[in-house]
Amino acid sequence: MSTYTAPLKDMQFAIAEFAGLDSVAALPGCGDVNAELVEAILTEAGKFAQCVLDPLNRSGDKQGAQWRDGVVSAPDGFKDAYAQFVGAGWNGLGASTAYGGQGLPHIVAMPLQEMWNSANMAFCLCPMLTTGVQEALMHHGSPVLLDTYMSKLVSGEWTGTMNLTEPQAGSDLSAVRTRAVPEGDHYRIHGTKIFITWGEHDMTSNIVHLLLARLPDAPEGVKGISLFVVPKFMVNADGSPGARNDIRCVSIEHKMGIHGSPTCVLTYGDGPGAVGYLVGEPNRGLEYMFTMMNHARLGVGMEGIAIAERAYQHALEYAKTRVQGRAIGQHSGDRVTIIHHPDVRRMLMTMKAQTEAMRALGYYAAGELDRAKRHPDAQARAGHQARLDLLTPVVKGWCTEVAVEIASTGVQIHGGMGFIEETGAAQYLRDARISTIYEGTTGIQANDLIGRKVGAEKGATALALIDEMRGIDAALAAAGEPFAGMHRSYVQAVHALEAGTRWLVEHYRQKPEIAAAVAVPYLKLFGTVAGGWLMARAALIARERLSAPGTDREFLEAKLATARFYLEHLLPQAVALSQTVTSGAASTLALDPAAF
Amino acid sequence: MKVLVTVKRVIDPYVKVRVKSDGTGVETANVKMAMNPFCEIAVEQAVRMKEAGIVTEIVVVSVGTQQSQETLRTAMAMGADRGILVEVAGEVQPLAVAKLVKAIVDKEQPKLVIMGKQAIDDDSNQAGQMTAALLGWPQSAFTSAIAVNGDTADVTREIDGGLEKLTIKLPAVVTTDLRLNEPRYVTLPNIMKAKKKPLEVLKPEALGVDVTPRLKTVKVEEPAKRSAGVKVADVQELVAKLKNEARVI
After folding, report:
1. Which of A126, A234, A270, B188 could share a disulfide with A89, CB 3.0–4.6 Å?
2. A162 membership: H or E segment, kind and range
3. Does pTM top 0.90 for this prediction?
4. Which ipTM score applies to this complex?
5. pLDDT in tens, B20-37
6. Across the interface, do B187 and A87 touch by the CB < 8 Å criterion?
7. Dihedral of the CA atoms A527, A520, A295, A265 (nearest 10)?
8. What DSSP character marks residue B20?
C-alpha cells in the first residue's frame, strides 16, 4: 500500500504560475498571502492529509458508514479525525474572518481541497458541503441566520448539507415536491430528500440542512422553488442545540464508492413538520443554489484532480517495486521492475501528464475565482468572472472524466492485482466514478458549456481565450528542440478548438439539438486544449529556468519532459475530437428512439 | 519561567537522502527540508509546559541558513513566542552550535534549555552536552519525562537497559528522546499568527563566536549495498559466520 505524499512542488509551481499567486496577493484582503505562507500552509496540511486522513481511507471504504434505527455512524476513526481537522482550523480556511475564518483566497483553499480529497475523498465531502452552506448563507442569509449558524459552520462544530434531489427530481430540479408551509416566523417542511451526503452522522452535535422546497402558492417549475435552513436540532437562544427537529434518516445507500460517506434518505415532517427558515426571498431558491453550485462544481473538479494524483502515486509505487519479466529485447539476465516496460511507462506518463495539466487548469480557475471576487475594478472583475464561468464546466466535466480514466489506468498498471480489492487501486476507481455524476453530470456540464457559456454569447469569451492561447505560438516556434514537435501539435490543437467553437456558435441557435449531440466531445476538446495551453506554458517556463544556475533541475526537467509528452502524445486527440464535433452530430441522432 | 528551545533545519525524514557525486556531503539543494524530529519534541515539550502554566515565555533558536527562518516560523506556529536565527551559511559543527547557544543563553537568561538529543542529518549527539558543559549547568540527555518543581526538575532518562530517574537543579539543559511526547499538528490559525511573531537575525560575530569548522570531512559515501543472503547448514556455522565474518558477536 502506498502512502499519500502531497505533491508540494507541483502545487507550488501551479499556484505561482497558473493561479497567479502574485496577482492574487495584490488583491484587497490578501495582504498576508505570499509564497512563504503558502508553503507553510501546504506543508502542514500535507502532513495532516498524509498522517491523519490517508490512513483512514482504506478502512473507511471497507467498513463504510453504518445505519441503525435512524442513527448513522461514521466509519471508525472518522469522528476523531474530524475533531482533529476542525481543531487544527482547516475548516475555516477560506471563511470570513468575521465568523472566525482565516479569509484566505481560493488559490490556497483549492490545493488544500485537493490534498484532503487525495487522502480521503469520503471524509472530505463533509467539510466541503459545510463550506457550501456557509457560502449560501453569506450571500443570501438574513442577519439572524448568519448569527445563528455561521460561526458554528466555520469552526466545524456543526456540519452542513445540501438537500436538492428527490426521487422524481434529479437533474431536473423543477420537479421538486417538498412543501414548506408558513407558520409564524418559520415554515413547516414536509417531503423526502435523497442522495443527501453526510445528511446524518455522529461526528458533530448538530447538522444544518439547506433544502429546496415549494411554498403553498408557488408557481410551477423552477421559478417556484425556495431555499430553507433546517437544523437537525433546533437552536436554543444561547446557541446550543435543543429539541430534535422533525427529520429522520430512513436509510443510507449502498454505493459503488465513497463508502465512508453516508448518502442519506431524509424524510421531513413525519410528525408536525420540520421547522425551517427561509433563506433570502421566496421562489428564488434555485438561483441561490446556483451561486454556490458553480463553486461546488470547481470543487468536484478538484476531486477529479485529487483522485488522479492519488491513483498515480499508488500505481507508481507498484510499478517501481513489482518485478516481472525482462526488459524488452533482453533474453537473459535479471528480471526488472515493471516501470522498465515501455507500455507501463506510457501509462504512468499519461497519468502524470494529465494530472499536472488538470491541476494547472483547476488552479488557474481558482485564481480567476479570486480575481472575479476581489478585484477592485468592476470591469476586470467581470472579465475574470466570464472566463471563470466558461471554465467551470470544463474543470468539472473534463477533470472528472479524465480522473475516471486515470484511476482505471491505475488499476491496469497493477495487472491482475489491480482487480483485487486489497491492493487498494480499485477504490480510487470506484470513488472517482461519482465525480462525473454529482453536482451535474458531464452531460449537464457540457450543455452548460455550449449553451450559457459559448452559444449564448456567440463564443466571445471562448474565442478571446483561444486568441490568448495563440499568444505563445511564437515562443514555442522559437524555442528550438525539443519544441518543434510540441509547437506543431499545439498549433493544430488550438486550431481544432477554434474550429469546434465556431461550428458550435453557428449551429447552437438554429439547431440546439444538433449542438447538444456533440456537447460532451466539445467539452473534452476544450479541456484537452486548455490543458495543453498550460502545459506548453509550463514547458516554456521550465526551459527558461533551466538555463539559469541554482534552479531545481530535477523538477524542471521532469516538467519539461511531462509537458512534451502531453503535447506530443495526448494533445493530438484534440484534432479527432474537433472532427467529432464538426461532423459527428447528425449520426448521433440518426437512429430514431423507437428503432433502438 | 523562560525556556529556550533549539531547532535545526534538516532534510525531511521522509526524503531519500542522496550522496553528492563528489563525496563532499549529501545533496540538500532543492530537497524538501523540515524541522529535526527531536527538535519538534523539544518545542512540543516547551509548549506543553507553557500550557500547564509552568513556562511564561518560549524563545526558539536556530543556527543555520536564512531558510532556517521557516523552521523557526514552524516552531512559533507550534507555540513558541519569538525566534532568534544565528545566520551561518556553511557547515556548523556541534561545538560552534554550543558556543552560540551559550552566548544566547547568557543574553536571555532562561531557566531551562531544551534541545533535541541529536539531529537526524549528522547524528552527532553532542550539542546539548557541550552546551551544558560550557554553561556549567546540570544536564539530562535522552529525556523521556520531565516535571519541574520550583528550582529543580525530576527527569527520566532513557539509558542502556532501563530508565534513570534524577532530580536536577535548574537552570539546566535537557535533551529530548522520542518518548518524551508526540508533537502536535500545527493549526492554521497558529500558522497565521506565527507570521507576526518577532524573529531576530544575528551573525555569529555579533555573539563573538568563531564558527570555523575544527573537524574536516574526509569523504561521504553510501553504505555498502546489501548482498544476497546465504543458507547455513547448522547453528555452528551461523555462529561462526556471525563471529568471524560479520563480527557482531
Report:
1. B188
2. strand A159-163
3. yes
4. 0.89
5. 989 899 988 889 999 999
6. yes
7. -140
8. -
